[in-house]
Design a protein that fits this description.
Largest sheet: 7 strands, mixed
CATH class of the domain at 523-651: Alpha Beta
CATH architecture of the domain at 523-651: 2-Layer Sandwich
CATH superfamily of the domain at 523-651: ANL, C-terminal domain
Shape: globular
Strand order of the largest sheet: 3-2-15-14-16-17-18
Strand content: 15-25%
Helix content: 25-40%
CATH topology of the domain at 523-651: GMP Synthetase, Chain A, domain 3
């Protein structure tokens, strides 16, 4: 059942009839009443209980949603301390267990749509067979539990099969999209010393075939002692010494996942900071199972008969969520290619043709459709139940545009979470109204609050997004962080013992959440997080450039502005030729999506007195903040270097003069 809708200008507050709802969420509430003796009349009561009684809530999720592991008599949680909590100690499970049930074997597990127009549909039976065959082949290559299998692949079924096969034998999966340059891919994957690399010979994007055979060769060579499996997307011949996808997925094999510890590593997801190599975030089999079942079933209402489409990349956590749809009996619909080729209506046509029920996208995509004047009412979108938007704040005007074209029965549910927890901190629910510009509520099991600088919870005011109690999908550790120092520094250094995520939010008096953007310097362009170092490093390697700074600013219009600022070497002219060489360096050593919107030559880049670039203060100045409130001049190596950015903010209609 779709969430209730509160359109712009509505004055009547919808009533949250939780236990009367025909949704999965309503069924859960009624089950809690009959099985646990709980009387929860609305969503907020349910959420508060889910946070106050973590063992009770997560054991109920396991039991009601039939998460496939045996937890009879098991301890649920060792401690309510956020850092170091252990879930279901002693329980064994495997993420691939989710493929063994949940829906009819003849139902589609995965549909892959290629930009060129072809479609591949894999039933649950065939998908499971390919996973089992690849799992057998990986074992034959000597892959053991805990070994790493990595992918350098586009958004195709082969990537999902490779993940599930790795999980089934207890290996650890990691992947990046094939749009990443070899150097950027190696910066992530080489940390893991993988045993097997699974890659494609290329992909199609924007009407152009992208041959990646040389890139695959470079990545494999840099990874060292690794076996390579090639997926022939462009029909290239398989080189000698490389295994073909067809041979490693041949045979009629039954899937039999190996039981592993609840916190056995499932995958490593990479998130880039502002300096150094990308951080590898490690999650466990059991915790991610619980979060996926909770989010996909209770919040998104997914199950048999539902189809989730998201145009994404194996570099982004949303891909991991998308390919998890089969574990709850739903169908994952993968799109390989440009979502706006040949025009902004492309994905909408796929939503209509493939009877998509749940369409995941970014605010930027919806803004583009509105600007292009798309007439969505001309398409048969009768199967569509909801639009799920994430990546940046959703402008109220976009919500109104969707309501105008799709009606109130297709709400745009804005969610916000992260790679860090493979899920959402705040989002929607079937009985909670959707209000333009807001996220309906904090998610179940998430002790979300907004804190001021003194660590006090604030309501109706901007604060840091914090989580005060543990979630099962929080990282079990960072890769190559044996003493946990980097992990603690990343989340617990600001408020000891409390998870600080790095977003500015407001928790309203109604319990809804407003996201104002990143409070740190992580770039989040159209929902894909990128590290500033991935952009600045190739630019700063150019002899003409002394230093570079990139920021990403969420604008009130809903757009995401990502400018690059450079200081030039002595005698260097800032002309079109130099700008094109900068763009090419970023495109070649990072990816096309890393190329900035604009490039500016600046007299100098300001730093703290310890040498750190002032990324966050400059971002906030360019968003319109008063410079005197975001940075103290006494902390800057040369305060005059702020003048350019203050003037640029003034010219763009934000900021103010010093």
């Amino acid at each position: 059942m779709s969430p209730l809708k509160e359109t712009a200008g509505s004055v009547d507050e919808p009533v949250d009839r939780l236990t009367a709802s025909a949704s999965r969420l309503g069924s859960f509430a009624r089950w809690l009443g009959s099985e646990r003796g709980l009387r929860l009349s609305d969503y907020e009561q349910l959420r508060r209980w889910s946070v106050a009684d973590l063992p009770g809530f997560w054991s109920a999720v396991h039991q009601f949603l039939q998460v496939p592991f045996n937890a009879a008599g098991a301890e649920v949680l060792t401690s309510t301390e956020v850092a170091g909590a252990r879930w279901f100690p002693g329980v064994r499970t495997n993420y691939a267990n989710g493929l063994l049930g949940g829906a009819s074997d003849d139902e589609p597990a995965m549909i892959t749509i290629a930009e060129a127009g072809t479609t591949e549909t894999l039933t649950r039976r065939e998908f499971r067979r390919r996973v089992a065959a690849l799992a057998r082949s990986l074992r034959g290559l000597g892959v053991q539990p805990g070994d790493r299998v990595v992918g350098y692949l586009p958004n195709i079924s082969e990537a999902a099969i490779a993940f599930y096969a790795s999980a089934a034998i207890g290996a650890v999966w990691a992947s990046v999209g094939e749009d990443y340059a070899p150097e950027a891919a190696v910066a992530r994957l080489a940390q893991l010393s993988p045993a097997v690399l699974i890659a494609a010979d290329g992909y199609r994007f924007g009407g152009v075939d992208r041959d990646r055979r040389e890139a695959v060769r470079e990545v494999a060579e840099a990874l060292g002692d690794v076996r390579t499996v090639l997926v022939p997307r462009l029909g290239a011949a398989v080189p000698a010494g490389t295994l073909s996808w067809a041979e490693v997925t041949a045979g009629d094999v039954e899937l039999d996942p190996v039981p592993v510890a609840f916190d056995h590593p499932l995958w490593v997801l990479f998130t880039s900071g502002t300096t150094g190599i990308p951080k590898g975030i490690v999650h466990g089999h059991g915790g991610i199972q619980l979060e996926m079942h909770k989010m996909l079933q209770l919040h998104w209402e997914l199950g048999p008969g539902r189809r989730l489409l998201w145009a994404t990349s194996p570099s982004w956590v949303v891909w991991n969520i998308l390919i998890s749809a089969p574990i709850v009996g739903a169908t994952a619909v993968l799109y390989e290619g440009s979502p706006t080729f040949p025009d902004a209506a492309r994905l909408w046509h796929e939503v209509a043709e493939h009877r998509v029920t749940d369409f995941g996208t970014s605010p930027g995509f919806l803004v583009a459709g509105r600007r292009a004047g798309l007439e969505l009412g001309r398409l048969d979108l009768s199967a569509l139940r909801q639009i799920i938007s994430t990546g940046s704040p959703l402008p109220p005007a976009v919500t109104s545009w969707c309501a105008e074209h799709l009606g109130d029965q297709v709400p745009v549910v804005s969610v916000s979470g992260g790679t860090d927890v493979v899920g959402a901190f705040a989002g929607g629910a079937a009985t909670v109204p959707v209000r333009p510009g807001e996220l309906s509520a904090a998610c179940l099991g998430v002790a979300l609050e907004a804190w001021d600088e003194q660590g006090r919870s604030v309501v109706g005011a901007v604060g840091e997004l914090v989580v005060t109690r543990p979630m099962p999908s929080m990282p079990i550790r960072f890769w190559a962080d044996p003493d946990g120092e980097r992990y603690r520094e990343a989340y617990f250094s600001t408020f000891p013992g409390v998870w600080r995520h790095g977003d500015w939010i407001t928790v309203t008096e109604r319990g809804s959440v407003i996201i104002h953007g990143r409070s740190d310097s992580t770039l989040n362009r159209n929902g894909v997080r990128m590290g500033s170092a991935d952009i600045c490093h190739p630019v700063e390697a150019m002899p003409e450039i002394d230093e570079a700074l990139v920021i990403g600013a969420e604008l009130e219009s809903g757009e995401y502005w990502m400018p690059l600022f450079v200081t030039l070497g002595e005698g260097v002219q800032f002309d079109r030729s130099l700008q094109e060489r900068i763009q090419e360096a970023i495109r070649r050593r990072a990816s096309p999506r890393h190329v900035p919107d604009e490039i500016y030559a600046v007299p100098g880049i300001p730093h703290t007195r310890t040498g750190k670039k002032l990324e966050v203060p400059i971002k906030r100045i360019l968003q319109g903040a008063d410079p005197d409130t975001v940075v103290a001049t006494s902390a800057i190596d040369d305060p005059r270097r702020l003048d350019f950015f203050i003037e640029l903010a003034r010219q763009r209609g934000g900021g103010r003069r010093r």
